[in-house]
Design brief:
Elements lengths: L2 H10 L2 E4 L2 E4 L11 H13 L6 E10 L9 E10 L3 E10 L2 E12 L28 H4 L3 H8 L4 E5 L3 H4 L7 E8 L7 H11 L21 E12 L9 E11 L2 E10 L4 E13 L9
Antiparallel strand pairs: 1-2, 2-4, 3-6, 3-9, 4-5, 5-6, 7-8, 8-10, 9-12, 10-11, 11-12
Helix pairs in contact: 2-6
Length: about 290
């Protein structure tokens, strides 16, 4: 296991401080705010620790309420709303400085069989045919804000292999579609809940970027303000996140200073194992956003 993956698992290993009450911390990486995927993943860990192992998460719906402060711990309070015959429901509130910064509802289901269908995976190159980001020219990284440069230059727990990085080099307007192969950078423990929580963490990566493509801008533009507003996921079947998943994304609409993006996650064999939807803030400021330029 790489040190970066070990650190991620430590990040998701919350401290239990009381019944239904957990405490998480943030990496001291120089970011001004807590990464949204971290809060999603930690909230899912908190909820899962109040649910029996015979039930697996089938969906989650979260709202980002305030920016997180990486300098102080995050308290996760779990409300055991319902334990039914087939489904279990939990509500989680993440708290800092006495205020809620994130709220999430999660549903768990006992394993059962039923009717099955799915849409087909796009026909795209396999991850072995794509260049790892670590081998891509420094041109992209050199244009990024200092915290972003530090992030890309250090060892990372999630490996990404996009089919096309052109939108990050160009201000040309493009179709709001992208495909990214994604996986944990090294093997994970066999517990399926760990794979679900690490995927929840990673699902916040690149998704909102897709909504920027039709506007000829990217996340490195200094006067762009972007932030996740809400995030939802559905888990359809078992998977391992230390094996490649194709994260195929599109953005049907942006309006009102908000961008809306959808994502589907497929195994390399074409099985649709999870779906994600996110809406995020997208604003152009007259002055550069603090920390971006």
């Amino acid at each position: 296991m790489t040190k970066a993956v070990e650190n991620l698992l430590d990040l998701l290993d919350l401290e239990k401080i009381e019944e239904n009450l957990f405490r998480g911390t943030s990496p001291q990486s120089g970011w001004q705010r807590v990464f949204g995927g971290q809060v999603i993943g930690q909230a899912l860990v908190a909820a899962s620790r109040t649910v029996g192992a015979e039930r697996q998460v089938n969906s989650l719906h979260g709202y980002f309420l305030r920016p997180g402060d990486p300098k102080v711990p995050i308290i996760y309070e779990v409300d055991r709303i319902r334990d039914g015959g087939s489904f279990t429901t939990r509500r989680v509130v993440a708290i800092q400085h006495g205020h809620a910064i994130f709220s999430m509802s999660a549903s768990y289901q006992r394993v059962e069989s039923g009717m099955e269908h799915q849409i087909e995976m796009p026909d795209v190159p396999m991850p072995e045919d794509l260049m790892p980001i670590s081998e891509i020219s420094d041109e992209l990284i050199s244009k990024a804000p200092e915290p972003v440069q530090k992030y890309w230059k250090r060892e990372r727990p999630i490996e990404l292999r996009p089919l096309d990085l052109g939108q990050y080099f160009s201000r040309k307007k493009q179709e709001p579609v992208q495909h990214v192969w994604v996986r944990a950078a090294s093997r994970l423990p066999d517990d399926p809940r760990i794979h679900q929580c690490v995927l929840a963490y990673a699902s916040d990566m690149t998704l909102l970027d897709t909504a920027l493509f039709p506007h000829g801008i990217n996340v490195f533009v200094p006067n762009l303000q972007v932030a996740s507003l809400d995030h939802a996921m559905w888990f359809h079947s078992d998977f391992r996140f230390d094996e490649w998943l194709l994260y195929t994304q599109d953005s049907p609409r942006s309006a009102g200073g908000r961008g809306f993006s959808r994502g589907s996650l497929y195994t390399r064999d074409g099985v649709l194992v999870a779906s994600a939807v996110q809406e995020g803030l997208m604003r152009m400021r007259e002055r550069p956003v603090p920390g971006k330029g």
